[in-house]
Amino acid sequence: MTSQIKIVQVKRSRRRWAAYGFLLIVALLIISWFSAQPVIDLLKSVFKQFGPALRTITPIQQQIAFTLIIFVILAIFAALLVTLGAPKRPLNVKEKDLIKERNDAVKYHKMDRKRQRRLNREMREYVEKKNQK
């Protein structure tokens, strides 16, 4: 006999996830904006050819470009962390069910092959009968 009691699963609300995502984007953009200039200065000191190459664009364009680059890197890292930390649904699949489903598929496949062989045999007999007349 099976139990009549049903276990209630509490669903977590996802209403605020969009707001959290927006706040995360804003925070990452602010961090990127303030860390762009030190990164530019670091690259100028480490790579000597980098300084003359940056003279072709204005400082605000440099700031915006490096802000976007840093933002993309931070966003990828944050997405990885969110993906790893997101709650996962438990699998409610039992091995017995999988075995039964596979056995049913094998049984259906065998029956289908038998049916196809029977149809082929009938067709062959029909064609032979027709050719004999």
Q: How would you briefly describe this protein structure?
A:
The chain is mainly alpha-helical and 133 residues long.
Key phrases:
2 domains, mainly alpha, 4 helices, elongated, 133 residues
Secondary structure: elements and pairs:
Elements: H1 17-46, H2 50-54, H3 59-85, H4 95-132
What does this structure look like?
The protein is mainly α and 133 residues long. It has two domains: 17-85, no CATH class; 90-133. It has helices at 17-46, 50-54, 59-85, 95-132. Helix 1 (17-46) crosses helix 3 (59-85). The two termini are 64 Å apart. The mean pLDDT is 87.
Q: Which class best fits the helix and strand makeup?
A: mainly alpha
Shape: elongated
Q: Give the low-confidence spans.
A: none
- Sketch the topology as an H/E string, one letter per element: HHHH
Helix proportion range: over 70%
**How big a fraction of the residues is strand?**
under 5%
Question: How many whole angstroms does the radius of gyration measure?
Answer: 33 Å
Mean pLDDT: 87
Count the domains: 2
Largest β sheet strand count, sense and barrel closure: none
- Amino-to-carboxy terminus distance: 64 Å
For the secondary structure, the number of strands is 0
